[in-house]
Specification:
This is Lactose permease. The protein is 78% helix and 0% strand. The radius of gyration is 24 Å and the shape is globular. The chain starts with a helix and ends with a helix.
Length: 344
Amino acid sequence: MGAIVAAWSTYGTFKLESNWSWRIPSLLQATVSVFQLCLIYFVPESPRWLIANGRTPEATKILNKYHSGTEQPTELVQLQVAEITGAIEFERSLESASYLQFIRTKGNRHRLFVVFSFGFIIQWCGNQLISSYIALVLTDIGITDPETQNLINGGLQIFNWVVAVGSGLLVDRLGRRFLLLTSLIGMLIAFTIWTILAALNQQRPNGSKGLGIGVVVMVFVFFAFYNFAMMPLPIAYVLEVLPYTLRAKGLTVFNLAQFCSGIFNGFVNPVALEHLRWKYYIVFVCALLLWIGIIYFTYPETCGMTLEEVSQVFDGREALDRSYDIKDMALAEANHKEKVMAGR
């Protein structure tokens, strides 16, 4: 939504011959942040954070509200509370969490690779060429009118929003790996065609309107596949693969990867586009091939799993045995409570 407001407010003000041509879009974006700041206080607290801070009754109440809808905790909720409590206690029994914890076990090294590579992938698969330098891309194919460029950008942002909302509804139905791989393969195909059309267009003395339109179509197809996974998944997937004690640090690593790729995009992309033109697109075609291989071989599926079950995927047998012990204890406790209640 923010991108839509930014794109269309820019279209509405780009003819203004004063500083308000950029001030108005900036102020509108700041207004949205004010709404976020006000509404954040109505978001329920994380049950894991509550349990970690000794507020288990509050955590149970939240889980009960959203997972069972009854007044008394169900067996499912009791099991979830026991799993979360056991996982947090186990993680606390280890050495105090630090960034070094990421390299001390095989499971954590795997997590570190997934988190850092994902942060880099979502910013370095070709999307930043359009997001930040759409004017250069369109100018290269002969679309030089500023108003037309702004209209294309505005339409693209609305299109992105529609696809992102639709794909968000499919995350738990199709699974994480399917979304990621489909997204990257689709982007690879679209970017390859985009590169070929841009190359053919450049070879024409005066360009070709048809080839230029083809490039614009491929840009929309590319972003359809990008939004299919890269909008709804990143933060959710990163949080799923990280244990509670490393979650904050893992998000920092994730954001660091995005920051590093952003620096590259900011300093290299405009210079490379100006000098290499369509040839620079080949770099991203190769990058997309690499990302597909990385995700296929190293990114596990987490759909339908609790965070405690995901740890079994990374940490192996030890986490599995611990999970069975926690579940047995939780079920025994739940059965005991049911017998006590029945005796009354």
